[in-house]
Amino acid sequence: VNVSRLGHSPLSTAAPSTVVQTLPATREEEAAKMADSPTIDAVFHNAVIVTMDDAFRVLQDGAVAVAGDRIAAVGPSADVLAAFPCAVQTLDLGGRIVLPGLVNTHVHTSQQLARGIADDVDLMTWLHGRIWPYESHMTEEDSYASTLLCGIELIRSGVSSSFSLCQHGV
Q: According to the UniProt entry, where is the signal peptide (predicted)?
């Protein structure tokens, strides 16, 4: 994660095993830093973290600290947990993979409810004989339901951004 694009300071240029957050040297510095730092809402640890940083590192036992809607730190689990011992919530992900949201740049939200109506035909038959007639009879409510279902499926699949190629407007 390139947190500089998220409105945070750039990632540390230190060795890959260090946490993004710089730790204070003394107890006084630590207390001052904790007083000035945002509340860490959650630390997700014990995960495979696909960082997407400049080196495309993958942390095998990594953690992500989150403050509000921002990533506060990314690094090895032990370092992030030590940096934020007072996180509101600490979640052990049991080795699951954490990666940035996926982007789907070609989705037809109005066709979500039409799955299976044309699995057995060629493209031109599908277009002229199936999908265009189907879409031409859709109501606004049909289109809304199809778009809602499509959105749920996209989110459950890890998609955080999409572009709909919908001619009937939703």
A: none
